[in-house]
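FAQ
Q: What does a multi-component entry look like?
A: The components come first, one per line:
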Amino acid sequence: MTAIDAPIAALPPATAGMPAYVRTASAPSLAPPLLSVGWLGWARANLFGSALSTVLTVLIVVLLVLVVPPVIDFLLVDATWSGSDREACLASAARPEVGACWAFIGDRFAYIIYGSYPIPARWRVDLFFALLAFGTAWLLWLEAPRRGLGAIYFFAVLPVATFVLLHGAPAIGLPVVDTALWGGMLVTIVVAAVGIVVSLPIGIVLALGRRSQMPAIRLLSTLFIEIVRGVPLITVLFMASVMLPLFLPETWSPDKLVRALVGVALFSSAYMAEVVRAGLQSMPRGQYDAAHALGLGYWQTLRYIILPQALKVTIPNIVNSYIALFKDTTLVFFVGIFDFLKTIEVARADPKWSTPVTSATGYIFAALVYFVFCYAMSRYAARIERRLAVSDRR
Amino acid sequence: MSGNGDTIKPDGTGQGAPVGPAVAITGLHKWFGEFRVLADINLEVARGERIVICGPSGSGKSTLLRCVNALEEFQRGEIVVDGMELTKDVKRVDAIRRDVGMVFQHFNLFPHLTVLENCTLAPIVVRGTPKHEAEETAMALLARVKIPEQAAKYPNQLSGGQQQRVAIARALCMNPKLMMFDEPTSALDPEMVKEVLDTMVELALDGMTMLVVTHEMTFARQVASRIVFMDAGQIVEINAPEPFFAHPQHERTKLFLSQILR
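Then the predicted structure of the entire assembly, as tokens:
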């Protein structure tokens, strides 16, 4: 109080003419203390920073020592890499420890990939995989040339090519392959790809519908989204496979796989709609104002202003949904479709390969494959996220 | 500067311009739910006229502007822009919006588009102007607001003052007959206010019809044909700048001026 009330003249005067301090020599350049840099510094800061941290570090090291060697032993050291039947993977006096039976995976590999797809026609599946990989790379590689063309290829050309290749077109000499014969990785990829490709546009339409000014459209969109989201995927699949035929004329009884595809697509669309809606809601009102003030109509505003920005911020969540969708495709095996997991399930029950380690090997293989796909998607999303963060910082 | 000052008449029309006022607002009322934001607004803006609207916050100034290009709906009254009555008809609304440029307090540039793309989007998409032509116009206007060298940058890379000048150029690219400014300098750092006001003064010198909501009284004194003072959703006083500042008539106006002109 007194300090503030004191008149300014009472402040100490600056020393006239004389600087208070002038450096005469620059400070000597000392190296940083040894314990604060390099791996030692890192370990001190991150592993042994506090008592709790030290305890956790030690615990984790102990856990790793206990777990990792046996896993490596099972997966690699004691594993069986070749053989033509169960004999190769059985324990014997000469070989008391038997690890993963990779020979079994190798033997049934074609079945796991193609299911019962006719062997002479399997090149068509290979070609489909190649076309899909090409399109995916084109679309996901952000610096790729002609990405607009890539999108047309992916969303227009590829679906038609896929249908012609996999289903067949007798007109051009490709015999029809019934979808009951499709299986394995092929089905998993087809279901996931259809879900991924279809759910985004439908999800966008539903999200827009839910935010529409028109009550009827808003009500319908909300009803659809909430009903589908309120039901487990397995229920949607059962309904699609049992109830869809009831609604449709008898003459046009849709294929079992198509029914599952419809179920998965609708299910993921409802989730995608909510993801997209979050993105739409993150757009400030000023963007709409500016677009409208310039004379852009509703659709023009969406197409040029809102969606490009909203989808960009939504990419990580979209990929998240895709990861969930990819794993959810395993549920189609409950409606009698032989997806990747189901083919492993069938293969492991084959008496020809019946050994104590066959099931474990099959499931580990399945887990690894799902992990590779999902981890790749997750990494990709993380990369995009970092890119966006950089471009926002500017 | 680039202005041709001799075409400006205090409240007259430019040469060869169509007859009738640029904007005619009659008996305008607007409510937000129960709350009345605009009441009995009557204002006629002649072509080439520069109207500055001022008043305390919440007095309905921005809402009035936003009604003119249908960013807000109103419940009663009539707005005629360039001879077209504003109705709920989408085509009519779009036609009016094409003719009315708007500059916002927070710029509202499109962050995902470059400065040049911000300027060319509406001409290309709305007017169907060929891309190279739209880009030429945009570059000319960016030169006019003195930032042609920023054309390839993204809005977030520019300073606030530069962004607001881009916003002005963007609106001008549609070749509007009327420009509305909604507190264009309120969100700017003090040292950037002048560059934006200078741009607006030049625009005024070129004979643009302008509706400006602002608290920059120096600008109002310098540029305005008439000053409109609003309070509580009503127009309290309209006068030319000289008498407005020298002899405010209404008590509310006197109070307001005494508060902002220290």
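Q: Is there any commentary attached?
A: Sometimes. For this entry: The longest helix of chain A spans residues 358-393.
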